[in-house]
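Incident log, entry 3
Record: DHRS7 reductase (230 residues)
Problem: checksum mismatch between cached and fresh output.
Input:
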Amino acid sequence: LEMSNLSEKDILVLRLDLTDRSSHEAATNSVLKHFGKIDVLVNNGGRSQRSLFVDTNMDVYSAIMELNYLGTISLTKHVLNHMIQRKKGKIVTVSSVMGIMGAPLASGYCASKHALQGFFNSLRTELTDYPEISIINICPGPVQSKIIQNVFTENLAKSLETSGDQSHKMPTDRCVRLTLVSTANDLKEAWISDHPYLAVCYLWQYAPTWAWWLMNRMGKRRIQNFKSGV
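Fresh output:
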């Protein structure tokens, strides 16, 4: 058992709702009052999606963007103001491999992650006067978590009936460790995934025509499995 030198005053837990954007300034101030500074912000809130676009209500797309995208940049805005005053800090955003490719049954989720990629890549170019503020995008592939149990479906009131097998996914602690390594080394973007998902990322980046062909084949099977409840 590792001994920790953390005491009660080193830990502060606040309830936070990313969709309640009016609460983000007060939450940021509470942290600053307790610790005096914010060294690292990890944006890790979000929900995925499992539904076909033709079946999905528009309010699902609105809710995904409100949570995954707007909630994240709202919290970032308040924390960044503090980091600019200090001229130091790290903003780590958990995007996804879906931020660099597309996939069936996740059009809204992909859109929100593409939005985060575009936003933070643009923000990085606005912070050239602050070389000690790092903008770090983490793009995990499939990771073991409760994200599947909490996905958006074709309407806001419906939850997913089956969450499927997660044994093929990367263990959570490995993803966390690699995220910490990426953060410590100020990587602008890190793809954290096992093969074959990682190979598909490279294919999508460097040989998109092949990626489309492969994704269409894989996607067809994925949609058939989805429709038959697998």
